[in-house]
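Async update (no meeting this week)

Hi team, since we skipped the sync, here's where things stand on the single-chain job. The sequence we agreed to prioritize is pasted below, unchanged from the tracker. I ran it this morning and attached the output directly underneath so nobody has to dig for it. Comments welcome in thread, and please keep replies under the output.
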Amino acid sequence: MHSMNGMHKAFRLIVVKYKYQAELFDDQPKYHVIASNRVESTADTLVWYRSCGEVSENGIKELKIGFGMECMPCWQFETNAAFFRIGVIAHNLFVLFKHSALGAIGSVIE
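Output:
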């Protein structure tokens, strides 16, 4: 458990050590650090952290690929922002329709 200067709440630092696959001839391990205020064990926190990443990554992938958000239509910020907002609204309406029409089966189809 750690705390930073000026903070009154402690948090857990989890350091994950792994070999970076792209560096085949480099024997130096790489590190990934997770700061968490969850009260579960370290293993449970890692399971929760990794499962959250999959959900958000899949949602972003569905938005980008399923609703044409891979690239923006032009170089104007306001136009791209409007385009992206419309795409997110369409995605959210699709998810709402899927869950309301299919119920519990809709979460399995994702």
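Quick observations from my side:
Residues 106-110 have pLDDT under 50 and may be disordered.
The longest strand covers residues 12-18.
Reply here if anything looks off.
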